[in-house]
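Page 42, continued from yesterday. The earlier attempt failed because a stray header line got pasted into the input along with the sequence. Redoing it now with the clean sequence only.
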Amino acid sequence: MKAFFLWPFKNKIEASLWLLFLFFCSGLGYFQGLHPEFKISESLFAPPTIRIFSTAENFFPASVIAELERETRTHIHFELIHSWEELKVQLIAQPTSPDLLLIPSYWAQSLHQEGLLRDADLQDELHDFLAPDFILPQGTDLTPASSGFFATYWSKLFLLKNPESEASLVRMPGKKEAGLSVRFLNDADLLIGYFSALQKKALAHPLLKAQFSIFNFDQWAEQASTSSDFVLLTHVQQRQLPLFEKIDLPEMMMIFGFALPKNGNHRRSILKIIKHYVSFEIQSQLLLQLPMASTLNSVNESSLPVERKSSFLRELGMDQMTIIREKEKGSEEKAHELSHAAFSL
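This time it went through. Structure tokens are written below.
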């Protein structure tokens, strides 16, 4: 009888080890069924590689990436987005698809409409981090329809006059029009939105003849030294550069945030990364380098300058402000026709 009980094992120790292994596998399988988001490979083996794409490198400087990797036990591969079309190709291609995006809200809206974002409610997951000014129903002015988008940064944009320029957008009778020069962000939809708003005010004609030069987001902090007649600056920069003249032109608003690609992986690790990224410890460093304000509650309650907080939006007001809803098809070509400058985003 004893031999039958031990069969096919050689002794009690071997039988006990196999029994323990069977219980362990059964328990692990039961736990995985209850928590399918739990990835065994992420917890027990080598750190997963998280692919993060964004339109600007200064959202993820090397020091921040190193801290995120250390705190979340992940390896982060950051990649700069060079064009809208390139991003769409990457999102469709399963092996190279990013796991996390930090992009403008109107990009997220268009990607959502094309079925390229995951239907995961980041606002529910990260609700406690968001300031009241940005806790709004999806699809309103400050939030795109996609539930897979979490607003992180915002800025109000002004086309300001360089204090060293004598240019004017007003036609003077009998005076020959001088050519205008404009320094603008490398964002085709933003330029189209500006021209559309200008046309409503009958102000488009002088700018249609202007010479445009463009800069990338990472170069925004350097625009104060431009020699152009007009330059696109954020409300943060406008507060820091009072000599740049605010004129009666339409104002735009830009919101950046996180989005989850449909073909991305490692959801559990990604949520850890986002939660640590939006912590005050990291944001207090980044906001001193970025020309934008925060949507986060912890920043609102801090001693950072008021123009860095979401509450400052109430002081600026949203009347007469243009907010882009979605990325326009063929916007790069249309922006080039308007400005004769080469836009890629």
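Notes: The radius of gyration is 26 Å.
Reminder to self: strip header lines before submitting.
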